[in-house]
Amino acid sequence: MKLLKVNKKAADTYRHTVKGNYKLSDNKIQQKLNRHIICLQEREPDRVIKQGLMGKVYLYGNLMIKVRWGKIVEVINLPYKLRIEKRLEDSVFQAIENQLNNK
User: Fold this and answer.
1) What pTM does this model have?
2) Residues 14, 29: contact at Cβ < 8 Å?
3) CB burial class (10 A; 0-12, 13-18, 19+) of residue 4?
4) Cα separation of 22 and 18, whole Å?
5) Element spanning 70, H or E
6) Measuring CA to CA, which residue among 53, 55, 25 is closest to residue 37?
7) Contacts of 13 (CB under 8 A, 6+ apart)
């Protein structure tokens, strides 16, 4: 598989917001982000939270990775509190969907 290219802004954001990665080279960041995406595609394809004509948004732990036209354009390190709220919101929607499907 060909590695996705990483936008300079996305690499800098990853370097400064993800703990312990401030000394990584752009090449190493590219490898890590691509590994995250490959793991998600193989193990948890439901973690692609948005899929459109122009790109996809992946959720890997607290990292939101936006891919457009074969290039990683943005990386957002979500705060832990927001991540918990998202999980609760997802579980509520899942429960409602299950109830609707059972009727």
Assistant:
1) 0.73
2) yes
3) middle
4) 8
5) none
6) 55
7) 74, 75, 76, 77
